[in-house]
Amino acid sequence: MRPVYAQGYYFLIPLKNSWRVHEVVNYYYYDEEGEMSELLHKPSEYEEEVYRAWEVMQEELEKEEVMINGVKTVPKVNWASLNFLAFAELPYYTFLIEFEGPSREGTNCFENRFEDWVAEYDYEAFWYLPPGYRFSEVQTSCEYEVSEDGRALGIWCRKGEEVRGYERICWRST
Description:
- With 174 residues, this protein is mainly β.
- It has 1 helix and 14 strands; from the N terminus they run ββαββββββββββββ.
- It has one domain (2-173).
- A hairpin with a 3-residue loop joins strand 1 and strand 2 (18-30).
- The longest helix is centred in the N-terminal third of the chain and has 21 residues, at 43-63.
- It is globular.
């Protein structure tokens, strides 16, 4: 089984004194033999595989240094699943992840430090702000675009690209 694609969706939610980020991540694979689909007929093994993936994802998240407005936060996996994209050879994992950090007047920033790596597969991330906010700064080694109204941000990394282990995404009220 080899990874072929990943997608992440980040929804920023302003609370009274903080920002909460709800993240949905999908990792897609090519399983030539369709071995993962056999787990659908073995409920306890399927459950064990989902739990294993959940633990691995949480361990990977804990290796990163994630900050909101300079305050460290640890993203937490709240849910995981294993499904298939039309064919037994195309399994994918979905993870629901959440983290939170303090808000401040003016510009707010998310920062992530992780190991540099060469992308093994294409991946993309989409960030979405509520009305009344717009992205004001983006630092990433990947290609990106901010929507005309400033509320949506798309980031694209391609297989084989060197990914620098630092991202900074900032937003402010309009």
